[in-house]
Design goal:
It is a single chain. This protein has 361 residues and is of the alpha+beta class. The chain is built from 12 helices and 10 strands. α3 crosses α8 and α6 packs antiparallel against α9. It is globular. The relative contact order is 0.12.
Length: 361
Amino acid sequence: MTLDANMAARLTAWLRTRLPDADEVHIEGLDRVKFGHSAEMMMMSVVARHGDQDARQDVVVRLRPKPPALLEPYDLARQFTILRALEDTTVRVPRALWLEDTGEVLGRPFFVMERAVGDVYEMEAPADVADQTVVRMCESLAEQLAAIHSVDLKQTGLYALDNGSDHLDRELEHWAAEMNRVKRDSLPALERLHRALRERKPEPCPKVTLVHGDAKPGNFAFVGGDVSAVFDWEMTTVGDPLTDIGWLEMLWIQPVGINSHPAALTIDALLGHYEAISGIKVQNRSWYRAFNAFKMAVICLIGAMLVEDGHSDDQKLVLAAYGTPLMTKVGLAELGIDEALDDGPVLPREERIQQVLAQAT
């Protein structure tokens, strides 16, 4: 039996326990669609027979990445809880169906969710789409971000995720701890950025909300001009909604995806629409951009060290490693710091880079 056939057999046996009323359960079209250190994804159809009638569900399996991953500790059960809590809100999320959190079925925890309809523009701009539709996409993205920030934390139970009052301190400490965990030596520029962020930390947004944590355009699917689903709730927490805004700003300036379309709203127009919908005033934008540049730089650094230490041969992580010095410079510039600072060892060793790149050719 092949690896995929064995996986299908294990999944089928487990799904029968999730659908005990079905006379027969089988899966079709098992397809691995994404591998990486964020998550491993598979698509399939679950067919449950009741008498002579078949009920088909198109689903996605989200599997915990092999440790060590970019985001550790990696908590799939937490993501599942968030999706379940958001089902009856105005936030458009795939419906979470079943969770397997022991790792006994596939060797790692996973959950199953409905396959959302829609197109995701991760790297490419929308093609053959009217300009007005692209404008509407941008507006709908802002509206969904506002919806996330208006979730009733008490009613959904999501207030229990984290203490929102210390969010900024918690985030600064977390990403600094991650930087220190993986660094090989002193990183003067990145460490300087962290100190400056702590020294200049503003008063947080007075409204404590659900925070997506990775509100990039590529995590929104669209049908026509409207968002049909919001994905990737790995870094979700409770706290300052302006951290999502700073992250979106940093991604909006990158010339990929929906924002690279000529008709896409400018970031100022996008945020103006967000303010009008959410009632949240966007302020201290430079600090929040700098903070998110720091966060991006550290994530890129973690990826670089995964390659350096032989945990990954992912060419994307090699290319992303160059984001650490770039994002560090962006963050320092946002805070008006123009000191000449050394980056330190933020890239994998050259021989390791060449080894990984050679495997891709």
